[in-house]
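Report of the visiting student (M.T.), summer placement. My assignment was to run the structure pipeline on a short list of targets and document each run. The first record concerns Serotonin N-acetyltransferase.
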Amino acid sequence: MSVAGAQPFIKPMQSPPSVSPGIQRRHTLPASEVRPLNTQDATSVFEIEREAFISVSGDCPLHLDEVRHFLTLCPEFSMGWFEEGRLVAFIIGSLWDKDRLSAEALTLHKPRGSTVHIHVLAVHRTFRQQGKGPILMWRYLQYLRCLPSVRRAVLMCEDVLIPFYQKSGFKVLGRCAITVANLTFTEMWYPISGHAYMRRNSETNNFGVFLICSRVLCVVCSI
Ligand SMILES: CC(C)(COP(=O)(O)OP(=O)(O)OC[C@H]1O[C@@H](n2cnc3c(N)ncnc32)[C@H](O)[C@@H]1OP(=O)(O)O)[C@@H](O)C(=O)NCCC(=O)NCCS
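After the run finished, the C-alpha cells were exported:
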C-alpha cells in the first residue's frame, strides 16, 4: 500500500493556483450591491427589458436609446441591484412636474419637478419570485425620502400589477391618459414624506444622500 493509500483522510495538498493580483480582484466583486445605474449599465438593463417585455408584448417601457437618455440626464433616479457584478433588478425614474402623467412624461426629465416618474421596475427572469422586486422598490422609495425636492412618486401599470404595487404602498390615482398600442394603464402614486433631518441638509448632493441612505438601508434589509 502506498503512503497515500494508508492515509485516506488526509487529502493531498494542492498548491494554490498561481494568479496575478489583477485576476484575484475579479473574485472580490461584492456579493450584493445596490447603486445608481450609469450609461455603461444600459445594455444590461435593456437585456432584462428585452426578456421581460419585448418577448412578451413586442415592446418595452424604455428602448435602449431612452435608457441611455435617462441614465445620462438623471442617473440619481435609477437604482440597480447587482449580484457579483451582474445586474439582477433595476428601477429607472426621472422627474416630472405635473399632477398626472401625459405622453411627454415617457421621454422627458423635468429637473424642477417634485414628482418622480418611475418608468420601469424589472427583475431578471432567473431572480423573480424571490421578493427582489418589492425589496428594491422599498429601498428606492426610502432613498427618495432623503431627497428634499421630491414629494411623491408615480407610475403607470397594467391592471394586473395593481395589487403588486399596492403591497409596496402605492395608491390608485385613476386611469392613465397614456395608451401604448391597444394597452391601457392605471396611474398609481406614493406620497414621499421625507426625513426632516435629511431635508434640512438639502445642500448634500444626491449621490452623497444615496450613499448614506444605501448604507442605512443595507443594515435594515441585509442586502
Ligand atoms: C413584476 C416584477 C417586478 C415582480 O418582481 P419579483 O421580484 O418577481 O416579485 P415577487 O417575487 O416578490 O412577487 C411579488 C408578487 O407580485 C406578483 N407578480 C409578479 N409578477 C407579476 C405579474 N407580471 N403580474 C401580476 N403579478 C405579478 C407575484 O405573483 C407575487 O405575488 P404574491 O406576493 O401574492 O405571491 C417581476 O416579476 C418582473 O420584473 N416582471 C417583468 C417586468 C414587469 O412586469 N415589471 C413591472 C412593470 S414596469
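The CA atoms of residues 110 and 122 lie 23 Å apart. Residues 1-19, 216-222 have pLDDT under 50 and may be disordered. I thank the supervising group for their guidance throughout the placement.
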